Amino acid sequence: MAIDVDSTPRSQLDRLLVMARPQPPLRTAVVHPCDPASLAGALEACRAGLIIPVLVGPRARIEQAAAEAGEDIRPFELVDVEHSHAAAEAACALARSGNVAALMKGGLPSGELLGAAVDREKGLRTDRRMSHVFILDVPTYPRPIFLSDAALNIAPDLATKLDIVQNAIDCAQALGVAQPRVAILAAVETVQPNMVATLHAAALAKMAERGQIVGGIVDGPLAFDNAISLEAARAKHIESPVAGVADVLVVPNIEAGNMLAKQLSYLANAQSAGLVMGARVPIILTSRADGELSRLASCAAAVLVARCERSKPAR
């Protein structure tokens, strides 16, 4: 079923589609779209006016996927390579040369695509560590939640968390949050010398205060309840511009982030989009379990991020 982007936004993800509508479609390398679902998702984003797909992968397998999906791919550019590893490398080369402005994961493992993206010689590195940002519409929360990092960095140290926070702020600003309020999550809201997550949180809050993180208001450590609930924050007598009204949630490690994102999706009916930030171009890291709205909203987010990145000096 096609998503109606002309209607009044019904969710935070619909809002992204409306925001992206006035922007020109983003020329996007679709990496190894060799199964019907990933190919059809990319072509649906094209029909929605979000991307101009450049199909990168083995021609015969892409044509077979198109036949199975009932899609005509003759109007689209196709870069023929041998296998998924070569597709990831070729897509990164297209981005480095400026021939595409985004990458979109097709039917290959995320690790293959990200492995090519982080390659020091042929990848898409900048001076910023790459990190993933979930954009979540939670029906019981009045604003979008940006959750990071639940997909890339396993046990980030302080330097990596600095980049995770800045990437999340940049993503939120590109998607219309002028000054994101960032909660650095831990199990408790007080600094405990034997809990590294609380030490990192306190350091990040101070780094933001000193201008090492820009564009957002950062506070922590905050437990999840007092990051998103004003009542919980008041009950614990927490005085903070972030507590209870957080836009961005930064988790201590990938396990916490992965579990939190899935709990919100499966227990709170949250819908999600997602991007990899910190690379030369946004990377749309969709999942086979994602629905049509999630896929389209991820593409819309990439359009909005790319628009903001074009206005910044190269890193």
Would you write up a description of this structure?
This protein has 315 residues and is an alpha/beta fold. The chain folds into two domains: 1-126 and 279-315, Rossmann fold; 127-273, Isopropylmalate Dehydrogenase, CATH 3.40.718.10. It is built from eleven helices and eleven strands. The chain has helices spanning 12-20, 36-47, 59-69, 84-96, 110-117, 158-174, 196-209, 224-228, 230-235, 254-267, 292-310; strands spanning 26-31, 51-57, 77-80, 102-105, 131-137, 145-148, 181-185, 217-222, 248-250, 271-277, 283-284. It has a six-stranded mixed beta sheet, sandwiched between helices. Strands 3-2-1-4-11 form a five-stranded parallel beta sheet, sandwiched between helices. Helix 1 crosses helix 11 (292-310), helix 2 (36-47) packs across helix 11 and helix 4 runs parallel beside helix 5. The longest helix has 19 residues, at 292-310. The protein is globular and about 60 Å long.
